[in-house]
């Protein structure tokens, strides 16, 4: 059986370091925020190439606080994509603002040609999603956003270390949002997230919003939240961040091997890499008109796969109040029917990668007969 991802393999690689950090926190008596979280925030800011990182308790909280930091609220609109994990859209709704969705292009990130038409006088922010680990088309999108004076939030929850022309995800918009859910490229031993920014004033607001809005104890100047990062997560994430570049290179090598092996096969197409991007392959997605048959055949051959995502956000029953209908975002809808995620994780061996590629080849031969 080849799993979609293997967190136990990661722990056998770096277990002693992680366990030492966890023990240190348990013995410290300091379990929420504190020096362990501050040290991680400094390392993450420097890794992303920004002035400040703010550790929080999830990627969803990072998105929510970024919007609140920008003053987004009822009556406002925020533009984002239909093809994303629902958290991106939910965070907008938490503020009382209305999500305005646009379609993606064949890289599965925001189609910059559709952005301008989605902007209205109520548009208060744009959230881009660096889906599967590939940056959105920052050049084209930032030029539209800047022309309208609208701040951009990067949803980099799948894109730790991704780059566009050498600039890291989380450093290109006004704010960047990260998730450290265990299966992400940088994963906690539980929940975690972070906001990154170069804007000092925004950072100060978000530090307050994260922890009850009190500049001095029991002096609450704003409605705020308990979105604090735990010390255990900060300590473990700091250990893992030091390995992230090595893990990313391993993911990219697996992706390159898949691309080579799949290049000659009909009816299976990896998501294209945009020129100038450093894709960090949180997900290795292929598209196939025979997606469901391909997935069943791979399961039978002991290869676990996933679908990111089978239903775009605008067609999720819980989001019907947004008023969208089938046909509104045709590229997203076709992608939802065709994408399949193959196993990828840094500890995956070249043998495992070849086994998966061979299984895809024989599954497609079956699908065609
Ligand atoms: C994981 C993810 C989130 C949410 O992060 P959590 O830490 O699970 O709250 C948001 N957006 C995208 C694109 C994600 O992949």
Task: Give the arrangement of secondary structure elements.
Elements lengths: L6 H22 L6 H14 L3 E5 L2 H11 L7 E5 L5 H8 L3 E5 L12 H4 L4 E7 L8 H11 L3 E4 L7 E2 L2 E2 L6 E5 L13 E5 L2 H11 L3 E3 L2 E2 L10 H11 L2 H19 L6 E2 L6 E2 L5 E4 L3 H10 L29 H9 E4 L7 H19 L1
Parallel strand pairs: 2-3, 2-4, 4-5, 5-8
Antiparallel strand pairs: 1-9, 6-7, 6-13, 8-9, 10-11, 12-14, 14-15
Bound molecules: pyridoxal-5'-phosphate (PLP).
Describe the fold and architecture.
This protein has helices at residues 7-28, 35-48, 59-69, 87-94, 115-118, 138-148, 200-210, 231-241, 244-262, 291-300, 330-338, 350-368; strands spanning 52-56, 77-81, 98-102, 123-129, 152-155, 163-164, 167-168, 175-179, 193-197, 214-216, 219-220, 269-270, 277-278, 284-287, 339-342. The chain is built from twelve helices and 15 strands. The longest helix has 22 residues, at 7-28. Bound molecules: pyridoxal-5'-phosphate. Pyridoxal-5'-phosphate binds next to helix 3 and helix 4. Residues 58-60, 84-85, 87-88, 129, 155, 157-158, 179, 181, 193 line the site of pyridoxal-5'-phosphate.
How would you classify the helix and strand content by structural class? alpha/beta
Mean pLDDT across residues: 97
User: For the largest beta sheet, what order do the strands appear in spatially?
Assistant: 1-9-8-5-4-2-3
Radius of gyration: 21 Å
Percentage beta strand: 15-25%
Number of helices: 12
Order of helices and strands: HHEHEHEHEHEEEEEHEEHHEEEHHEH
Give the biggest sheet: 7 strands, mixed
């Amino acid at each position: 059986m080849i799993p979609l991802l293997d967190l136990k393999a990661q722990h056998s690689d770096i277990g002693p370091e992680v366990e030492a950090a966890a023990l240190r926190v348990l013995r410290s008596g300091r379990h929420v925020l504190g020096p362990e979280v501050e040290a991680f925030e400094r390392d993450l800011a420097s890794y992303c190439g920004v002035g400040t990182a703010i550790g929080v308790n999830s990627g969803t909280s990072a998105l929510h606080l970024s919007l609140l930091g920008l003053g987004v609220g009822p009556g406002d609109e925020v533009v984002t994509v239909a093809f994303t994990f629902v958290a991106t859209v939910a965070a907008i709704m938490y503020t009382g603002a209305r999500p305005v969705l646009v379609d993606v292009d064949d890289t599965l990130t925001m189609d910059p040609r559709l952005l301008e038409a989605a902007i209205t006088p109520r548009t208060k922010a744009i959230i881009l999603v660096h889906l599967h680990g590939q940056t959105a088309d920052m050049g084209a999108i930032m030029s539209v956003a800047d022309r309208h004076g609208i701040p951009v939030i990067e949803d980099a929850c799948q894109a730790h270390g991704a780059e566009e022309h050498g600039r890291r995800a989380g450093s290109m918009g006004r704010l960047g949002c990260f998730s450290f859910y265990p299966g992400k490229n940088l994963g906690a031993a539980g929940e975690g997230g972070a906001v990154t920014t170069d804007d000092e004033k925004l950072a100060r607001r978000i530090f307050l919003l994260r922890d009850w809005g009190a500049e001095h104890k029991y002096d609450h100047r704003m409605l705020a939240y308990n979105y604090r990062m735990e010390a255990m997560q900060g300590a473990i994430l700091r250990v893992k961040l030091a390995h992230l570049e090595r893990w990313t290179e391993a993911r990219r090598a697996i992706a390159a091997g898949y691309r080579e092996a799949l290049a000659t096969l009909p009816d299976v197409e990896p998501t294209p890499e945009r020129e100038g991007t450093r894709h960090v392959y949180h997900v290795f997605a292929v598209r196939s008109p025979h997606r469901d048959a391909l997935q069943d055949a791979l399961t039978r051959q002991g290869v676990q796969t996933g679908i990111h995502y089978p239903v775009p956000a605008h067609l999720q029953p819980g989001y019907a109040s947004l008023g969208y209908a089938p046909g509104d975002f045709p590229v997203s809808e076709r992608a939802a029917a065709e994408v399949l995620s193959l196993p990828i994780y840094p500890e995956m061996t070249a043998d495992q990668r070849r086994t998966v590629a061979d299984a895809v080849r024989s599954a497609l031969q079956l699908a065609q007969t």
